[in-house]
Amino acid sequence: MINIKNLSFAYDKKNILKDVNLSETEPLIVGLWGRNGSGKTTLMKILSGLEKPGSGIVEVDGVVPYNNIEAMHHVLFMQEDHPYSDLWDVNDALGFASDFNRNWDQTLADELVYIFQLPRNQKIRKFSKGMNTMITIVIGLASKSPVTIFDEPSNGLDAHMRKQFYDMTVLEERKLGKQLKVMVDEAYTENLKMRAEANDLTIEKAPFQDYLVNLTKRESNINAFA
Ligand SMILES: Nc1ncnc2c1ncn2[C@@H]1O[C@H](COP(=O)(O)OP(=O)(O)OP(=O)(O)O)[C@@H](O)[C@H]1O
């Protein structure tokens, strides 16, 4: 999914990234930690094609992101303070995002708007910082891009909403003795079965009824999926 080899980058001759290497082949969630000014946003910009690597190799989902229009179908970068038109309300922003993202999942978008309790008809320019973050999360997740990058995704969220975000992809988690049972919103594919078996997990289809109940809970048990 992400392949970085010996990446170096400088702004105005000031070295920001030096010999960065990263290879991730599995779908997973990766967090970037680092001091302020250490180059995290710069790395995200390079991964999403907004900046050109100084030297080295950068590939995301098999494509070189810089100067490559095809890359928009492989990687999505949701920046902090993502720019929205002053004229847009939530529905406008979702409509625009759906036009540009091949894998757009409207059902998921509607569910997330509901969980975050975002007012659909209010102009985004009138949103609070936390609400701005929420609409950015909704678009980032519902786009279902092969690689999605968030910069400061919990900025402005209160503790409850931050938990909602971090816990967004697992629908239910139950402890049965020493067993932990988790309901995840994932297609039941051969690949998923193989991944589960390789990790000593037992996997079974959730009853549709239980799935729907979990999906529509307002104070949902939507919990983390790693
Ligand atoms: N457009 C730019 N032109 C010149 N220097 C820049 C530019 N953008 C960032 N920098 C510099 O590059 C360095 C890394 O910045 P970057 O925003 O990538 O850091 P960061 O790790 O994301 O920081 P933070 O945690 O504060 O968000 C900083 O020294 C910053 O001043």
From TrEMBL:
This is ABC-2 type transport system ATP-binding protein. It comes from the Bacteria. SMART domains: AAA. It comes from Lacicoccus qingdaonensis. Keywords: ATP-binding, Nucleotide-binding. PANTHER family: ABC TRANSPORTER, ATP-BINDING PROTEIN, SKFA PEPTIDE EXPORT ATP-BINDING PROTEIN SKFE. One of its GO terms (molecular function) is ATP binding. Residues 2-224 form the ABC transporter domain. It holds the Pfam family ABC_tran. The keyword Nucleotide-binding applies. SUPFAM superfamilies: P-loop containing nucleoside triphosphate hydrolases.
